[in-house]
Specification:
alpha/beta; Alkaline Phosphatase, subunit A; 27% helix; disordered N terminus
Amino acid sequence: MTQRRLIPRRGFLRGAGALALALPWLESLASAVEPATDPHDVARNRRFVAFFLPNGVEAKDWWSKGDGAGMELSPTLQPLDPHRADLNVVAGLFNPNALTGEQHVCSAPIVLSGARAQKETIRAGVSIDQVIAAKAGMNREFPSLVLGIESAGLGLMHGWPLLYSGHVSWSDATTPIPRENNPRSLFDRLVGDPAVTRRAVSVLDLVQEDARSLAKELSAGDRTRMDQYLTQVREIEVRLGKASARSGADPVITKAMPKPPPERMDGTDEHVRLMIDLIAIALQSGKTNVVTMMFGNDLTAMDVAFAAKGDDPLLRNHHELSHKGGPLYQQTNHYFVSRFADLIGKLKSVQEGEHTLLDNSCLLFCSNLMQGGSHDRRQMPMLLAGKAGGGLRTGRSLNYLKHPDEQRQVCGLYLGLLRHFDINVESFGDSKVVLDGI
């Protein structure tokens, strides 16, 4: 009699070399369930994703009204309309330690920590994503992934290190975490063996024998789930190949050749979309439970013609556009909110037992400035999506602007979110008070 393979519900498809394509959770593979991969063990499977939007927002077009089915969203937030029931729009929070110093450089590195950045030496504070990664990232190949779309800046701004504007994720007070900016390199890390994945052959071709064998052990529903997942991987592979071809990058890398530069491969739009899709794959496959993504460095001068329509030369410089404000600036905000909505939709479509991947996640979208042009740091634009494993109520417009200052500190929000990940600390950053309603 053939003995059934004893593998966890979230397994791998093996290929040549060290290639191991991680799979999503599959109900059929119930013979040997590892606690760290069992979706019913909610505490071990909560995910956290933080997005940083540089250069603030157009404040007058960033609002919500009402709760539940009656929630009304501003034009900028309209991409989130299908997900109102899974959303919290949080207004009125601020970061006290961001109120002094250079507006961009001092506030960006502490957006997830609430610490005080130092001018004379590189020093900020441990960020919430890394506190969560220390627990939720246990037993994962990558405790966290820190991603971006452009290299961090060098030099000084009014005496402050520009390095600050390119790092929101810190493992401790003096260690900013380097970002992975290249989608191709990220794909290689998630699949397992760059030497194999650089070949002119699909990863799926290399694992198809193992996939056919595994399919015999799966229910019809799980076969569909696995096929959909593999299709996603293949589509990303094809897009990466096209991006490399258009940018002139040689897809075949040898030891004598340098790694591709960590810059945009083929236009920012496709770069951003690839990163969103790869985040979904990373979370779905269990490679990591924690991701931080910067949509650009604060102070970024990137060309945003991909995000807004028009011939205005300001579209060639996001920071200058933020100072002018108006419809084009609002359109760029709308674009990045749309990509946030894309990830919400992807995670919402993935079942993990009785819940969805979004139910088991907490997604944060934020900027350090409420109004980019005026550098308004008295408020921060913030969005939350997902139920963090069931403990976080959604479908709400939460406005703390009229609360006392100690009850509207952003670190009070972070302190509350940490508790949803069973991290019970007395304080985080500059707050000892859990935000009401979180």
